[in-house]
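hey m, so remember when u said the tokens were messed up on ur end? i reran from scratch. heres the input so u can diff it against urs
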Amino acid sequence: MGKRFDYVPTQLTKAFRKAQSDEKFQGWLKMQEAIMDIEFPIYDLPEVANEMFTKDSLEKAEAKLLELYPDDRTAYATDDDIDRTMRYVYYVGETFRRALDGIWVALPPNDPKKNKEALEPAIDLPFSEAFIQPTVLVRFALNRRTGNEIVTVFGNMERVYRQWVDDGRPERVFRGTLRED
């Protein structure tokens, strides 16, 4: 049997490195960035226009998602729903990215047999091997319907981030012991 940490960390895989230059992913990022300046604070969530990308705005974004959709499936029911939901996904991710010194990344699929091209947008944090996956946060928010799913994760990550900063921003150490050649 293998040891508990016998795996290759995602960030160190060839598939991960290749996914970062995916044209569709890069195009999605550029499009969402432009929409944040134009559409999102005007049409999607005007309540946050003066407090974009803050912890408080995440509460308002989650509340609006709960108002718009009864569940996760409905959020992706039509092309218009998909477009709107993905703007919220970007907004959530960008809020985490800005607050926690993260970067946008494209995660390759866990099971490449299913859909080799299905990249998942995520935030890679300099102090953690784990990723923030805003699509997962939106799914949890819509399905659990507590009204505080996203902001709770944000608060937890803020505490870890502050500890990392207080410790002098040490270089990230991957727990996985294996490496690809």
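this time it looks ok to me. The chain has a mean pLDDT of 93. if urs says something different then somethings off w ur setup not the seq
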